[in-house]
Amino acid sequence: MEKSWLLAFLFFHIIPSEAAFSASGGVGVGIGNGGGGVGVGIGNGGGGGGGGGGVGVGIGNGGGGGGVWIGGGINGQIPSGPPISNLNSAYSALQAWKSAITDDPLGIMTTWVGSNVCSYRGVFCAVPQDDETSDSPGPVVAGIDVNYASLKGTLVKELSLLTDMSLLHLNSNRFSGTIPDTFRDLASLQELDLSNNDFSGLFPTVTLLIPKLIYLDLRYNNFSGPIPDGVFNKNLDAIFLNNNQFEGQIPPNLGNSPASVINLANNKLSGNIPISFGFMGPGLKEILFLNNQLTGCIPEGVGLLSQVQVLDVSFNSLMGHLPDTISCLNGIEVLNLQHNKLSGLLPDPVCSLRSLVNLTVAYNFFSGLSQECANLLFRNVGFDFSRNCIPGKGEQRPQPQCSVIPGGGLNCLRVPLVEPLFCG
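That's the Cell wall hydroxyproline-rich glycoprotein sequence above. Prediction below.
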């Protein structure tokens, strides 16, 4: 699976501003299967050389290159050549969007004047690498990044005209309303970051119809209702749905997701963690369920997540004993179980996990520590077991709270795995 979303993030946030480049220089990294060059290649082609005063971005299936002008090319050169007919529809789209912006404290929209959209602040243009097949050669709008611009307004249906756009970053603005149904026509879009805005309504299912989308970030909005099954059937590498108002159960097909990062924290999700949880793709590195209303037991299949580095189920109402298979989390670095209703002995295998950096089990009903867990106090591992029911240890629950264990000390009924799980 491509990790272009991460590379694009590094590209747009780590490179110097356009003022740091000379009028003749192009900088970047070649990505893809095609030929070389200096630039960033998005897609199957190699990176291309940077345009004058710009940073090279190669988009498409072949070698070669293109130039993208950081900050809309305000201080960079404008590409020479025939009229840029490819940008006519982009002009219409961006002007329609500009008319829907009601507050612009940083003056971003003051640069969105004239037909040369490549000079607009926050708009990034590039020449497609397979442009030789086009009747109207020239640059296209490859991305829009207006993160932290404090723009207020709504999204407009005309944005779907930007069919060459591979990323749309709108983090930390004041956009509201819903996502236009026409977004399904964004045929090249790979990254959609709508985080930290005021969007509302049900989950925007149109995002699941964007054919090439691999990075979906909806966190810190006011979306509500259930999470649709389609989220976990789509080929997404990163799913950020945290800090919304989603409710209902986690879809049972959670295990179908090939994502490396899934964050469902700080919602109103209820019910059990799906049994399919343990059968997620081998690329899963982080999964966070914290601060919901989840109940039941931690599934036996958790042990199949041998490459997971962060597992956080804190601040829920999970109960019962920990499954033995949790000892198979060989890659786990952060395991956060605090503020649940878990009980029983905290066993040796959990505290013996070789990659463990932080283990938090505070505010549960564990009744004892194994020897290996006691040894964590002498290892360079953060270990918080306060507010449990462990005899002889400080900062535990008052005895009356420990007299009745939630769930009656439930030893969860485990669904047998298809094959016995042996930890390597």
